[in-house]
């Protein structure tokens, strides 16, 4: 970076005390060593390279204006944004939600569905490679090797029982932690 940085560098104080961050309205997350994804006050989802100050609109506010997005996650290949809507909290960190998928290449929005799963999901997250996904529904875990081929979802657990066994859903002791963790090679998968 050094001499190639033309503008003033971002200071820790600017990040810690930024009004948007303090209010939680931008929902920033790191997507690589030098890039963050965040939501602008107008609702647009942006990708920002902090080293070069390059910015790209991944989803415009016009595209998302008809959807009440509670949270969002960018896929590893940056082709899709997972939009969480209608979140209903069970307790402080655990929730059920409906999910939509926003295609960053053509602005299309589709309801996220899996043929073998009915209703809302307890947990959905992108994996570390391309469009891998992990899904928890009815206390059972499914692995999807590729969003484009979600009909090939593999059910990893089938012992989930409401009030008894919660695969992939942390109990009160582990609330706020990741439910399911995949390493970069996506094998093996670890879950609570």
Automatic annotation (TrEMBL):
Coiled coil: none annotated. Pfam families: DPPIV_N. One of its GO terms (biological process) is proteolysis. The keyword Glycoprotein applies. It comes from the Eukaryota. Keywords: Aminopeptidase, Glycoprotein, Hydrolase, Protease, Serine protease. Residues 75-175 form the Dipeptidylpeptidase IV N-terminal domain. The keyword Glycoprotein applies. InterPro entries: Peptidase_S9B_N, Serine_Prot_S9B/DPPIV. One of its GO terms (molecular function) is serine-type peptidase activity. GO terms for cellular component: plasma membrane. This is Dipeptidyl aminopeptidase-like protein 6. It comes from Dinothrombium tinctorium.
